[in-house]
Amino acid sequence: MRYLKLTLEYDGTNFCGFQKQTGTGLRTVQGVLEAALQKLTGEPVRTFGAGRTDAGVHALGQVVHFATQAKIPVDRFPAALNGVLPSDLVVKKGEEVDSSFHARYSAFAKKYCYLILNSKHPSALWHKRCCYFPYPLNVDLMRDAARCLEGYHDFQAFSAAGSNVKNTTRHLFSFRVVRQRDWIGFVVTAEGFLYKMVRLMGGTLLEVGREKFPPQRVQEILASGRRGQGGPALPPQGLYLVRIYYPGEGEDTSSWKEAPELGFPFASLF
Amino acid sequence: MRYLKLTLEYDGTNFCGFQKQTGTGLRTVQGVLEAALQKLTGEPVRTFGAGRTDAGVHALGQVVHFATQAKIPVDRFPAALNGVLPSDLVVKKGEEVDSSFHARYSAFAKKYCYLILNSKHPSALWHKRCCYFPYPLNVDLMRDAARCLEGYHDFQAFSAAGSNVKNTTRHLFSFRVVRQRDWIGFVVTAEGFLYKMVRLMGGTLLEVGREKFPPQRVQEILASGRRGQGGPALPPQGLYLVRIYYPGEGEDTSSWKEAPELGFPFASLF
After folding, report:
1. Which residues of chain A make contact with B87, given a CB cutoff of 8 A?
2. How many structural domains does chain A have?
3. B171: containing domain
4. Could you count the other beta carbons within 10 Å of the beta carbon of residue B179?
5. Per-residue model confidence as pLDDT tens digits over B8-62
6. Is A154 designated active site?
7. Assigned domain for A256 exists
8. Is residue B54 domain-shared with residue B184, that is, in the same domain?
9. Quick check: B263 and A261 CB within 8 A?
């Protein structure tokens, strides 16, 4: 038996989330991936994902692992699998791992990015890939609020019901607010995330940016431990699962603060 | 009667091109726009576009003009119209013009950009917005070839049949080949373009980049005036109509060489 780790990019628009929903007929990332793996290897394959993304949420670096008896060399696996996958789900990388590797439990950090288009008019090309927000935003205040969220905290106040996680304490390593022209990005790295945590923190930061909440309010909401005190969760289409971090990858943690490359930064070439 | 000029962004994926095709039931940019204008103004509106983009081709700055008796102030026109337009077609700007303005005939230059993803694996997020090309490309040779195309030439050899244009001579002001990481862009500004001219020139540049054609071959093809000598036309989804230039906009022509901002250049912030 071999154990393989795959890194996936997907456009979440036409998926009902990551997690397979057997018997529902819903199109999910895991369901489509497992069907493609079965087609390629000729055996039923059960995959394990690093994180469950909701419907409409995108990924640049989702990770899954699985066991297989297929003999396909690991360096040819991505291209072979991409040959049977639909174009909105792409394998970017394949690696052989040992049997102790688990996409979810071996990870020590995850990075998400939330993308906001803060302009007068929406974008036709980005409408399923960002959250359009036309009101003025005070980015300095948002950065102050983001700093309150960094560190080791109980994030219960920034979680949605619908998960039965008991321990709601997480180490949030980095929360950056980046701005360029009409775009704002939240780049958040943590050891783990609660259900809808990024979108709820993001919605609250927009309230701060609009100067409806002072930045300290974020601290108070966090300390209260009560849900429903912050802004509403931002919509899924602005959210990207950027990267899953595993031990032994030889990288320092400086990349935790780095924003992902989402597209061709044409204008920046000049 | 008032005369309005609108600047449009659209995602060409789900449009059968720009031009209205009455009676066919096909969804076109012009058809959708005119229906929205009629809904907003209560009057039938006939629009005139600066350029006809093919099915699948995108626009960041298409321009149309039309006459109307509607009293809506021009600064509110974009938001009002966006309220009735679908999300893949957005009005970015509205301006009042005089009756002599014509979106097509008043233009003195047009800028297109062609976007290529030159990486080992395709992109799930960009698959309808770029051309995926996995083979190594020699960008220096492509730049040499691009320079042969700049200037005042008969571009018949780089046009497709299906248009009854008689004069195939055009002034091509600038043809830049830009590269960043896995992305390559052709940024082409000319007084006008023949049918499929950008995609045919682009397909030929890829042959040069793969070292199948020497750069001088592009010069020879151009001089031959015969179609079908160069590489095949690139697919529509990598093409963007970036900007239409009109006299009196107070800009110098240095922007002709500039690449457009297509997305959030996250990675470049660091």
Report:
1. 122, 124, 127-128
2. 2
3. 109-249
4. 16
5. 999 999 999 999 998 899 999 999 999 999 999 999 999 999 999 999 999 999 9
6. no
7. no
8. no
9. no
Q: Which residues of B touch A130 (CB under 8 A)?
A: 264
Q: Does B56 touch chain A (CB under 8 A)?
A: no
Q: Maximum CA pair distance of chain A?
A: 58
Question: What size, in residues, is chain A?
Answer: 270
Stretch 175-234 of chain A: residues touching chain B, C-beta under 8 Å: 178, 180-181, 183, 185
pLDDT averaged over every residue in chain A: 92
Chain segment B222-256, per-residue pLDDT in tens: 999 999 999 999 999 999 999 999 998 866 677 77
Looking at the predicted structure, is the pLDDT value of residue A197 above 70? Answer: yes
The answer to whether position A262 is within a domain reads no
Q: Is residue A115 located within the same domain as residue A229?
A: yes
A176 within domain boundaries:
yes
**Residue keyed to tokens 């917005």:** B129
Mean pLDDT of chain B: 92
**For A27-63, how does the pLDDT look when each residue is reduced to its tens digit (9 = 90+)?**
999 999 999 999 999 999 999 999 999 999 999 999 9
pTM of the model: 0.92
Interface test with A, best of B53, B264, B268, B270 (most A CBs within 10 A): B264
Nearest to B90 by CA among A264, A113, A117: A117
Residue ranges with strand state E in A128-237: 131-132, 151-154, 169-180, 183-190
Q: Is A37 in contact with A123 (CB distance < 8 Å)?
A: no
Q: Does residue B126 form part of some domain?
A: yes
